[in-house]
Design goal:
heterodimer; A: 120 residues; alpha+beta; Ubiquitin-like (UB roll); two-stranded antiparallel ribbon; 2 helices; 18% helix; B: 315 residues; mainly alpha; 13 helices; 2% strand; globular
């Protein structure tokens, strides 16, 4: 017997009736993907805001202007090809950050000082 | 770690209100559910440009035209934030768009209704964007990090959409008899489809449980719909208009407004593709994609040529 499950993920938009997996991903003809970083004002760091596709860096910056700074959210844009970003692996977080875990003396609150010393 | 341990760790992370990020381990079903929901949400933003785009060249003043242009451009931006979030789950943009064009992926049914008069534009801002905001505010707290961040960005901009819509209706509501009639007519036509945007009743929506457990959704369809009705009943009074539902009534016990039954037959018809504009919307998207092919090819060729020249200079 065939059973059909109707899935709703977002409001009135149903999923496929069988709830099957999304279409297998074919060959990718997309333009390269770029990660976009925006400095919102002078004096602040660039911050990651999202990504977009573009044929080259210039187009990526121009598209980033249109997509991410329509309301003057930025004074400077960085774009980096997503494939050029190397990331630490979440499953190795334990070992990676372990050396910092037992060194509470690196924090100012570790030190008990007399109340007379207000600001140090 | 065994799959069982991974799943437990995953659920514990979500229960502790810690976001899931792209490189984290996640169950396949969580990934697929997010891909579907985010891509369909993205498609809704893109298709949603069509009914409003219909009025850009016919806006009643330069001011309204500029506002409408900015709003439609925002919708394109929202689509892109969401496509970008979707890609962090390992999909390609091309396939995602193909899924829309082949009908594998859906978009919100509300955009299968036509925009017949100028008052429809204000009403869409007030009711359709208003209903969308209910959903989207909830989704700023969804468990998948990139989706939640895209939602924060979108919600900031949606507020302008709803306010300009309501203000536009306010102007009509203080206008001539004909303008007031046009305003009321638009509200009458959009009210029920707007309520349908929240989806089937909770008892009919089979996937809600898992999505709630994974905190992809954080409120049920019925909860959001009720919240929306309560707000609109008050707002419509400021317009001096009425909502087309004789059964709207304050319920002292529940502290909510009771409202009439949605025409679920109409709901299912539009979902199944038989709404007034389903065919037209999809055709418009496919046409735009096909007629833009030469631009995409030319841009790629231009970039390749520039790269070649740069390589030659470097050598």
């Amino acid at each position: 017997m065939k059973t059909y499950i109707r899935l709703f993920f977002y409001g009135d938009i149903p999923g496929q009736e069988t709830g099957s997996a999304p279409a297998p991903q074919g060959p990718k003809n997309d333009w390269p993907l770029w990660e976009v970083f925006i400095r919102s004002k002078q004096g602040l760091d660039h911050k990651h805001v999202g990504s977009l596709h573009a044929t080259d860096a210039q187009m990526a910056i121009e598209n980033a202007r249109d997509v991410y700074t329509r309301r003057q959210e930025g004074v400077s844009i960085w774009v980096v090809k997503s494939q050029d970003i190397h990331a630490s692996r979440p499953e190795e977080s334990g070992e990676l950050y372990d050396p910092a875990a037992d060194k509470i003396y690196r924090h100012p609150t570790f030190y008990d000082l007399p109340d007379e010393i207000n600001h140090m | 770690m065994s799959v069982h341990d991974l799943e437990k760790h995953f659920q514990d992370t979500i229960d502790a209100e810690i976001k899931i990020e792209p490189l984290d381990w996640m169950p396949d079903a969580y990934r697929k559910t997010n891909i579907r929901q985010i891509s369909q949400h993205a498609h809704s933003e893109i298709v949603g440009m069509l009914p409003e785009g219909n009025w850009i060249s016919r806006a009643p003043s330069l001011k309204r035209k500029a506002i409408l242009l900015a709003k439609v451009q925002d919708e394109a931006g929202h689509g892109l934030y969401l496509y970008s979030a979707c890609e962090t789950l390992g999909t390609s943009r091309e396939e995602t768009i193909n899924d829309l064009h082949t009908g594998r992926a859906k978009y919100s049914s509300i955009f299968n209704y036509p925009t017949l008069t100028w008052a429809d534009i204000g009403t869409i801002g007030w009711l359709v964007d208003g209903a969308a905001i209910m959903n989207q505010v909830m989704l700023t707290r969804t468990s998948y990090g990139p989706y939640a961040r895209a939602m924060v960005r979108i919600c900031k901009e949606e507020s302008f959409h709803q306010r300009q819509g309501f203000e536009s209706l306010l102007v009509l509501s203080k206008g001539s008899e004909a303008q007031r009639a046009m305003c009321q007519d638009a509200i009458n036509r959009w009210w029920w489809p707007a309520l349908m945007m929240f989806g089937p009743r909770d008892s009919e929506s089979t996937n809600s449980d898992q999505s709630m457990k994974w905190k992809i959704k954080r409120k049920t369809n019925d909860e959001l719909r009720q919240q929306f009705v309560d707000i609109c009943v008050e707002q419509v009074k400021l317009l001096g208009m009425t909502l087309p539902d004789p059964n709207l009534k304050w319920n002292e016990e529940t502290k909510h407004y009771d409202f009439g039954e949605i025409d679920w037959n109409e709901f299912w018809q539009v979902v199944k593709g038989n709404g007034p504009c389903n065919l037209e919307r999809l055709q418009a998207r496919k046409k735009a994609w096909e007629e833009g092919a030469w631009v995409r090819e030319a841009a790629a060729a231009h970039a390749a040529k520039k790269q070649k020249r740069a390589d030659a200079n470097a050598a």
